[in-house]
# Entry
Amino acid sequence: MRVAVIGVGCTEFGELWEKSFRSIFLEAGIEALMDCGIEGKEIGAIYVGNMSGGKFIDQEHIAALIADHAGLAEFGIPAVRVENADASGGSAFRQAFMAVASGMHDIVIAAGVEKVTDSVDPMGVLSTSVDQEWERFVGANLPALYAIIARRHMHEFGTTEEDLARVAVKNHKNAVHNPKAQFRREIRVEDVLSSEVVADPLRVLDCAPLSDGASAVILANEEIARKLCDTPVFVEACTQASDYLALQCRKDLLTMKAVVKASKEAYRIAKLEPKQIDVAEVHDSFTIAEILAYEDLGFAKKGEGAKLIREGETEIGGKIPVNPSGGLKACGHAVGATGIRQIVELVLQLRGEAGKRQVDAEKALALNVGGTGATAVVTILSR
Amino acid sequence: MVPRFWRKIKYRYDVVGSYCEKCGSYYYPKRELCPRCRRKGRLRDEKFPDEGTILSYTVVNGRIIAMIELNNGARTLAEVCAEKAEIGMRVRKAFRRYGEDGDAGIIYYGTKFVPIC
Ligand SMILES: [Zn+2]
# Structure
């Protein structure tokens, strides 16, 4: 059964000190419901991406909490939380997609929510996504592992710190036109290169911030989608793959095998080639991750990712615009909400509702990655 | 937290990993199941080489953390005790403590590496 996204909603991403976990997911959910003009009780199931309610706000049983506060417990609508580190949102979307594609439900909601600023050590919590016994134990956190990948990429392929910086510069430039973005200001390559070192060679401005935020999308089967919505956006494929959790267990430090596998499968199902994708939202939790994404998604050959950013091909107006929202780097990274936030951006792009950051697009791709790449979710959308 | 780290002592101190007699693969850390041979695999514990080469590294919180390829091709992530590191640098294992747990002062030992001069 064909599946479409018919409604989208997203809060601003950032340090939302004045807002609670409960209020941000309601804000995103209500926006998505209003976007497609449904009330809520038509929904068959709720899927929520959330990495670590337990560690960030000392609250588990997140899905039930959400059903309750959204007024949907009144109707007994089943809710489940999906956890795959910072790919939780993408995986929640995939569960929702499968529920509709299988015919089990007609209309479902996929949401993502994370409240990180109530925690004293958000990066420590995010780093629970890496192998605690063999990576964290020896002193490596998430930035350290991406730094190890970055240095090897520089060594083998001649990628430079300037190339990495250019990714951050582009994403900040795009975020200026995104009203939901955390950092709506431009930065220069020199700013990145003079920012503090976090894990050599990665600096503060190579790292996505950790943000509060929530996002939600409504999915429906084609028949219902056409009735409820003038501009349904179809899910052409939604795939997921796994890789070894610890970096040391992977044969190739410079290829995210899960990204390669999930994207190949998605292209096959959607009957598309990488060059037919018009716009992409990828998981730039660190600048090197965006360069790897170019290569592993097939936008560039292995080792030539940096060339794409150097030549401006991934800017708005380039051959394959990447992260028009500002990406995780500048729109913000609300962990479990990020995968859904990427879908929201691409739906706006495909509907032609992206304002000053609009790309002319018919086919769009989202890549959501967990940790250092042990989980990858790829979604291809079309209008 | 304590038993979880204590259980791994032998594997950490001595760099003991797994060797599959069926397909000849080395795994570190130790595995219960050979990913290549699945149920047909024959894994046994094996002491891994003491020496290896730095594939990549970072400096985080003032410490050098490196991906080291041991002489048998298996890889391990470990701290390198040196002034500075370089890709391609040859290193050898050495026992060092990794941390201490709160007031109880339980010390976690693991393998760190030092340059071969
Ligand atoms: Zn084997």
Summary: Chain B has a mean pLDDT of 89. The interface with chain A takes residues 4-5, 8, 27-29, 55-61, 63, 65-67, 75-79, 87, 98, 108, 110 of chain B (CB under 8 Å). The longest strand of chain B covers residues 90-101. The beta strands of chain B are 16-20, 26-27, 43-47, 51-60, 63-70, 75-80, 90-101, 106-115.
